[in-house]
Write a structure and sequence with these properties.
The structure holds two protein chains of two kinds. By secondary structure, chain A is mainly beta. Chain A is about 0% helix and about 55% strand. Chain A is globular.
Chain lengths: ~110, ~110
């Protein structure tokens, strides 16, 4: 991947459990975003965290950012079957044109009822 | 739901045909993007535009071409489709340069026989 690597590649959990996905990137960034993609559909923006922020919450989502380790994590609490999707991190690396995003390889999450 | 539309959703065509994938947005966004995504894989930027009469090639080389004659319309054309062009094509737009939150269409799944 040019910029983002995510792990795990796939994750299967039961409803009610928490899901954690990790993203690592290579260069300095202005901000990092997480997107969700349902099978066969386009991506939907979930949350953005700026490079000077360490943690951000939105509903059942919690994102952390560690710029010293060039990594981010997305935590989905109390997962539901409807959370089944692929999740991608995206960065606008400062060494690249900031109008372009570089997407990670994605984590496929499956939540069983 | 974002106001960005892609047609057709699915296209199956024979080798050598000329095709145009349509992308329109009603949000007045200046920046638009085309990505190519194979199943279960990361997104690769193939074209982008910063406004009318502006088009640039992305990070992944593509035989397709784009045009931006109107702000709301960003079609992608393949002059002679080949089986190697089989993929999902996603269109996106954004308004904010700093945050660059992108809004995606539902995608066109292209199969070239």
């Amino acid at each position: 991947s040019q910029q983002g690597e995510e792990d795990p590649q796939a994750l299967s959990i039961q409803e009610g459990e928490n899901a954690t996905m990790n993203c690592s990137y290579k260069t300095s960034i202005n901000n990092l975003q997480w997107y969700r993609q349902n099978s066969g559909r386009g991506l939907v923006h979930l949350i953005l965290i700026r490079s000077n922020e360490r943690e951000k919450h939105s509903g059942r989502l919690r994102v952390t950012l560690d710029t010293s380790k060039k990594s981010s994590s997305l935590l989905i609490t109390a997962s539901r079957a409807a959370d089944t999707a692929s999740y991608f991190c995206a960065t606008d690396a400062r060494t690249y044109n900031t109008d372009k995003l570089i997407f990670g390889t994605g984590t496929r999450l499956q939540v069983f009822p | 739901e974002a106001d960005i539309y892609q047609t057709p959703r699915y296209l199956v065509i024979g080798t050598g045909k000329k095709i145009t994938l349509e992308c329109s947005q009603t949000m007045g966004h200046d920046k638009m993007y085309w990505y190519q995504q194979d199943p279960g894989m990361e997104l690769h930027l193939i074209h982008y535009s910063y406004g009318v009469n502006s088009t640039e090639k992305g990070d992944l080389s593509s035989e397709s071409t784009v045009s931006r004659i109107r702000t709301e319309h960003f079609p992608l054309t393949l002059e002679s489709a080949r089986p190697s062009h089989t993929s999902q094509y996603l269109c996106a737009s954004s308004a904010d340069s700093f945050k660059n939150i992108q809004y995606f269409g539902a995608g066109t799944r292209l199969s070239v026989l």
